[in-house]
Amino acid sequence: MNAMRAFLRLTGIEILLYLREPVAAFFTFAFAPLMLILFGLIFGNEPRPFYGGRGMVDISVPAYLGMIIATVGLISTPIATAAGRELKVLKRFRATPLSPWIYMAAQIVTYYLVALLGGVALGICGRLLFGMRFDGNPLWVWIGFTVSTLAFISLGFLIAAVVPTARTAQAVGMILAFSLMALGGTWVPLELLPASVRPISEGLPLTRVVLLMRGLWAGASLEAHWKDLGVLLATLVGSGILAARWFRWE
Amino acid sequence: MRKVIEVRDLRKAYGSRVAVDGISFEVYEGEIFGMVGPNGAGKTTTIECLEGLRRPDSGQIRVLGLDPWRQGQRLRERIGIQLQEGGLPERLRVEEALRLFAAFYPRPISPEALLRRLGLAEHRRQAFGQLSGGLRQRLFIALALIGDPQLLFLDELTTGLDPHARRAMWDLVREIRAEGRTVFLTTHYMEEAERLCDRVAIVDRGRLVALDTPENLIRSLGAEGRVIFTLEAAADLSFLAGLPEVLRVERNGARVIVYGRDDRLPARILEALTQRGISPLDLRVERPNLEDVFLKLTGRPMETSG
Predict the structure, then answer these.
(1) Helices A77-86 and A166-183, interaxial angle, to 10°?
(2) Calpha distance A125→A103 (Å, rounded)
(3) CA B181 from centre of chain
(4) By three-state DSSP, how is residue B209 classified?
(5) Distance CA B144, CA B141 (A)
(6) A32: distance to nearest CA of chain B, Å?
(7) What is the pLDDT of residues A191-203, one digit of tens each?
(8) Which end of chain A is flanked by fewer CB atoms within 10 Å, N or C?
């Protein structure tokens, strides 16, 4: 089928282009493993009662997944999309018979796959270097990761739709991503956040990702996290609708 | 001749600014049709309405029998588009771009053949961000041709190119037409329109002010031509003003400029001079051109308007 060929070719090229962007590639594939190695070497992975009988690495890996998801969704997605609009790349694609839906699908799948690849790299690193524990159901973890990633890519497209330029996309994306990471328990475990910050933290979508991934990682069922999943699905649908409505090709 | 483009009473405004104010024309199969006018005359808006990238406020457009806005995707399978302002990802390489775009069309031309034809073969591994302006333009032409289009849209193809590259582009466009493709182009270079186009539509401030072959436009408007020469020795030239083809004579020392509207002006002057034993030095003929036509039609020269 013609549409399938266009989709596959475009997705392949977009992934290649993502890997050629050194900054994006570093923060997607290398940053989280490097942090894990650094803190793993400092704190080790001994089980501690404070972390519910788990080690630092055991709880950091699912939390760092949240960091990868936020980086790809809130930084890479809006910057690349707004830059594509600014540099008239989107317009050049529109001037072909390529369906706009296929174009968007290829973008979404690209960001999803690079996030997934980053997550897998992080997991392998935790397992091989620190003997990380994993008690979850792989299918559920994958579903949780997928919903979380799609929700943040969708937020990223919403940012791209409302900002005027790639520069503003970068500023908005980074401020948002770093505040969510700081408050969402990706860098510092949620348990260490001051009590006054906890209520704010719990209202943020990235906190939901971290809670969901930590829970699923430790063997909880999807049903046990229906609230987190619900918030993320609502984010996905809500920002998806707004992004589609406000999206500009030029 | 078969019509490939039909436009009737096209209008498009951006807020209160009217970009295209009721334009109608037809383009026939196999011609190079040019739309010329100053920047801001409405050329790009018109071409983008024809390509289905912009929605007209009113008017009827048919391109290859299709409605560009409603049937844009189907139309774009059969046309090639070179945008005035188009871009590609900085790190996308020349060959990758062609292979990617080839996947968007039902019956693409081989990317390899296009790379060679447009002199891009030795640049195939170069990233778009590193290409010079001329190479970028060649790549954009290649992308416009990759779908084997019946009709090609070229918006300000040669803007920003040096004269040598511009001439090479003209040859390329003539070649493309020789393959049986129709070409619709816009330019703000009158010389380009005159040299390259079979028919020219002159637009100004969103309106079509003239449409014909370049020769007819120049002739019908009776724009003035000039014959310029230098005298070797002082001579009485009052007889020149008596020639029926001559409108007036200007003298500046030994330098003489004779104005007239007739195609036979140079021959008549030379004949008259020779009869009186006067041999002019460095005689030069300046034919009226489309710049003069534009001036005549709008009362403003091309460069300062728009």
Answers:
(1) 170
(2) 33
(3) 16
(4) strand
(5) 5
(6) 25
(7) 888 999 999 999 9
(8) N
- Asked if B150 reaches chain A (Cβ–Cβ under 8 Å), the answer is no
Distance between CA atoms of B83 and A91, rounded to whole angstroms? Answer: 9
Reported as type and span, the H/E element at residue B256 is strand B255-260
Pick the residue from chain A with its C-alpha nearest to B99: A9
DSSP state of B244: T
Neighbours of A202 (CB within 10 A): 16
What domains can be seen in chain B, in order of their start residue?
A: 3-219 (3.40.50.300), 224-287 (3.30.70.980)
Contact in structure between B170 and B186 (CB atoms under 8 Å): no
- Summarize pLDDT for B97-144 with one digit per residue, the tens: 999 999 999 999 999 999 999 999 999 999 999 999 889 999 999 999
Are B82 and B142 in contact by the 8 Å Cβ rule? The answer is: no
**Among candidate residues B278, B288, B275, B287, the one with its CA nearest the CA of residue B256:** B278
Q: How far apart are alpha carbons A216 and A225 in whole angstroms?
A: 8
User: Hey, is the C-beta of B99 within 8 angstroms of any chain A C-beta?
Assistant: yes
> Which residues from A are below 8 Å from B83, CB to CB?
88, 91-92, 95
Q: Cα(B235)–Cα(B214) distance, rounded to whole angstroms?
A: 37
Predicted confidence band at B306 (pLDDT cuts at 50, 70, 90)? very low
Mutation target for A interface from B45, B50, B104: give the one with most A CBs within 10 A: B104
Residues near A27 by beta carbon (within 8 Å), at least 6 away in sequence: A71, A75, A76
Confirm whether the ipTM is greater than 0.90. Answer: yes
Spatial separation of the C-alpha atoms in residues B280 and B273, rounded to whole Å: 8
Indicate the residue of B73, B81, B89 with minimum beta-carbon distance to A99.
B73
Strands B199-204 and B32-36, how do they pair? parallel
Mean pLDDT (chain A) is 95
**Quick check: A50 pLDDT over 50?**
yes
